[in-house]
Amino acid sequence: MHGVILAGGSGSRLWPLSRELYPKQLLKINTEKSLLEATYTRLLQIMDEKSIINITNRKHLSDVKSQLDVISKNVTLLSEPVSKNTAPAAAVCVKYIMDKKGDDLVLILPSDHLIKDNKLFAKTISIGEKYAKEGYIVTFGITPSSPQEGYGYIKTGKDLNKKEAFTVAEFKEKPDEKTAKKYFKSGKYYWNSGIFLFKASIFMNALKEYAPEIYSIALEFNFKKNSEIDFMKFDKMPSISLDYAIMEHAKNIAVVPLLSDWNDLGCWESIYDISKKNKEGNVNIGNVISKDCKNSMLYSSDRLIAGVGLDNVLLVETADAVLVCDKNKTQEVKYIYEKLKEANNETHRIHTTVYRPWGYYTVLNQGEGYLTKMICVSPRGQLSLQSHNFRSEHWVVLKGTARVTLDNKTYILKPGSSIDIPVKIKHSLANPYDVELKIIEVQKGDKLVEEDIIRYKDIYGRTKA
User: How far apart are CA 50 and CA 72, in angstroms?
Assistant: First the structure.
């Protein structure tokens, strides 16, 4: 069996904590590990690390790689050159497995689900394996705990073996409140988890029948030669989910009820549900003071949040945004995210503080033609050897000692020292010491974007990103 972790989502309903360039799968949301790290670790209980494939969008590649490299030194990571939803991502991964390994079983799962009981999860996958070998495309259903409107539903058909598995009669879209109550009361429906297990050839046959355009393009990839996903080929793929492309049409679908706990953390109400509450039913995280509040969630990333007399309220603070809403309306946070995206407002896209393998940077100020950052390089950290086509930079050391490479020359800079980085000149910043390095970077130019980075050498393997 091979595992495919889909790690390219945006997590828009968890704004402002989740952003386009740092989505929820990369976050530690009141947990020790990020959701991505937890998903990868969970698969290691089922299969060897060399059998796990991670696929993500190119814009998330360096962050995904840096998190997984801490867990394993044999990470297989495929990079989508453009977002095309789950069906194309699954198709290229299955083709990759068939080219590299053969006609094996493939387990596909999202990277952003919270599952605590990994043993019961593994047991459920073992049950599904039996039906996948019989030629079923297996999906895993979640027993509903309430009539939720935020999930897709699976209607069960024939009992295949003492309620261990069922055929699928129908997939249902997210229902309204009345329909959700009807589904819940009937006992014939499961929530759709988005986890699938099948034999590679069975999946490709389903693609050929129900999504022929994706199938024909997938066949154009030859992963026996290399592991690159060619942009020109992949860009021709239609953007469509696995549910729409295959699951709603195929006849050989089986659903296996998931035995373990499960939460997709799809909205802030989900975070509230899994969090420890005080006697008033409040979840207070971070720098929070509250009085006479009940059934509310106050989440502070940094600044003090003070709440008085709140009831059923969600309040989330980050460095550049504050979200306040009715706790029962958190599914609608996606509307805010989409409006910010339409307005090209950067708060949908990126945090003011961005983490990198070498440390992090915080945007302090920006305007037309300039951008100021505080860069913190961890002990023994090093930025890539790079250049920029559209901007110059000026560095001022605040703390620690910087080793700067500029046009094949090396400079050692102490606090108070500064250096200019001209346009198109190769340069690098390193901290070879045991104390963190902090510098102020001032960028000047007509185009001040992270995409204006040309990498030549990088100890974190990001030169192809």
Answer: 10
